[in-house]
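Q: A reviewer asked whether we had any structural model of the full assembly, not just the individual parts. We don't, so I'm hoping you can provide one. Inputs are below.
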Amino acid sequence: MRILFLGAPGAGKGTQCKRLSAKLKLPHLSSGDLLREAVKDGTPAGVAAKSFMDKGVLVPDNILIDMFRERLSSSSCANGFILDGFPRNIAQAKALDVLLEDLKAQLSCVINLEVDDRLLSDRITGRRTCGNKTCAAVYHLKFAPSKVDGICDECGSALTQRSDDKEELVMARLKTYREQTEPLIEYYDSKKVLHTALGEGEPDQIFEDILKTLNTNCLIKQ
Ligand SMILES: [Zn+2]
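A: Here is a predicted structure for the entire assembly that you could use as a starting point for your response.
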């Protein structure tokens, strides 16, 4: 199965992708993780990406595509994969189409994880991370608070808020998502592979809904 997840920042894509990856035994491919791996392994795309990252600029689309080409054509993806956070815009989606065509593969299912904007904002701005890098436990002021305010349960270090999780930046991130990524919903809908799952409520319930969506719509298609 080749699954692609769409969803705004804070929609809980990462959490659900990890669970699905464990359940279906398919690799979970987020562009951030893939980038770190490619750089660490020194693959041709990784080496090219590093030269941009060292300058502190965004890695261009063609290098990202090369990186996904390296990974998707490897044996680790022979039974499928779960894409998370890629493609981010129509240009990347079209490049992914070409790549999949070259691999004689197609997407089985695109899941759009839908969450109301107000809740997205609450989820992101309430997020706190343990400042101790080797611990990096994640909390939420409202949904998963630490036992002592501002202190990590695991290691006792102070909790911090990621700078791009602050309110005004969250609004900017949501706006970018609406402008660049939301058109993908229509793009995949026109290809008849899009399915929507509600990303609100308990993570267990959301996961059940996603499994049900996949079972109903996607398992028969390879
Ligand atoms: Zn900690």
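A: Points you may want to mention in the reply: The domain at 2-116+181-217 is CATH 3.40.50.300 (Rossmann fold). The mean pLDDT is 91.
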